[in-house]
Write a structure and sequence with these properties.
11 strands; Alpha-Beta Plaits; single chain; globular; 9 helices; Formiminotransferase-cyclodeaminase, Chain B, domain 1; 7-stranded mixed sheet; 4-stranded antiparallel sheet; alpha+beta; 2 domains
Length: 296
């Protein structure tokens, strides 16, 4: 017999604040009725990744509450991080853990986007699997030129938001929303601070450059740590586990340590090298299956 229980979903909203601990904490306290699994803040990126979970029908309310708090707490005019962004609540992916929950995740992402557009009067653009036009599929295309460039495209009528007003909020910008399978955000720090080397490695290992399947990558310099970093998004962790990314970077430069941003499925860690430190990692908190069991 099929269960009447609403499916459990996960959301991984990214917010454009990674330096002010008090603000990060207040944002973390704003996610009810969803439950908070993890917060990953990065000062160099000036960005925090929140991992939330709730049943279908409740997660949208948590995302709405977080979007409201982000609009009040964050002013994009004061943002200076390395990571590309277009909004205070920059991206709002709802994650389905298996194909059986894909429809529920899509519905919940659309519900949250609609409420944020209507109740908070913030423009919301659907990307990825929910994109309404081909040119909206890739986040990079929407972020090109920064949030002011996207605001101008909206103001000129070149691009109409899917929800909310046809103008960007002067403080909070634009929200990008989608539903997707788990994506792993994973960074590899080099021993050196050579930005050009990190950028070259990123270009060689990303899928678009003929590198690893499902991998997006950029090279950055982290002034706070005095290192260069290869920052990746892994769209298919079964095709490319994190160990392969470490091996690809190691073949080109000496690696200091690695970093998981948010949570990742257990399978992503298959074969991960024991001699590479994962900064701040806890299997109880950062392996997705373990974290979900802790709140079941």
């Amino acid at each position: 017999m099929a269960s009447d229980r609403a499916p459990t979903l996960v959301a991984v909203p990214n917010l454009s604040e990674g330096r002010d601990d008090a603000v990060i904490e207040r944002l973390a306290g704003s996610v009810a009725p969803a439950q908070l699994l993890d917060v990953h803040a990065d000062a160099d990126h000036d960005r925090s990744v929140y991992t939330l979970t709730a049943a279908q029908g409740e997660l949208a309310g948590g995302l709405l509450s977080l979007a409201r708090a982000a609009r009040e707490e964050i002013d994009l005019a004061n943002h200076s991080g390395l990571h590309p962004f277009v909004g205070a609540l920059d991206v709002m992916p709802v994650v389905y853990l298996d194909e059986a929950r894909r429809g529920a995740a899509c519905a919940e992402a659309l519900a949250a986007a609609g409420r944020i557009g209507a109740e908070l009067e913030l423009p919301v653009i659907l990307y990825g699997e929910l994109a309404t036009r081909p040119e909206r599929v890739e986040r990079a295309d929407l972020r090109r030129g920064g949030w002011r460039a996207l605001a101008q495209r909206i103001a000129d009528g070149e691009l109409a938001p899917d929800f909310g007003p046809r103008r960007a909020d002067p403080r909070a910008g634009v929200v990008l929303a989608t539903a997707r399978a788990p994506l792993v955000a994973f960074n590899v720090d080099l021993v050196c601070d050579d930005l050009e080397l990190a950028q070259r490695i990123a270009a060689e290992i990303r899928e678009s450059g003929g590198g690893l399947a499902g991998v997006r990558a950029i090279g950055l310099r982290l002034d706070a740590r005095g290192r260069a970093q290869v920052s990746t998004n892994v769209h298919d962790h079964r095709a490319t586990p994190l160990a392969e990314i470490v091996a690809a970077v190691r073949a080109r430069a000496e690696v200091a340590e690695a970093e998981l941003v948010g949570l990742a499925p257990e399978a992503a860690f298959d074969g991960f090298p024991a001699d590479v430190r994962l900064r701040g990692f806890s299997s109880e908190r950062h392996v997705l299956e373990n974290a979900l069991r802790s709140v079941a």
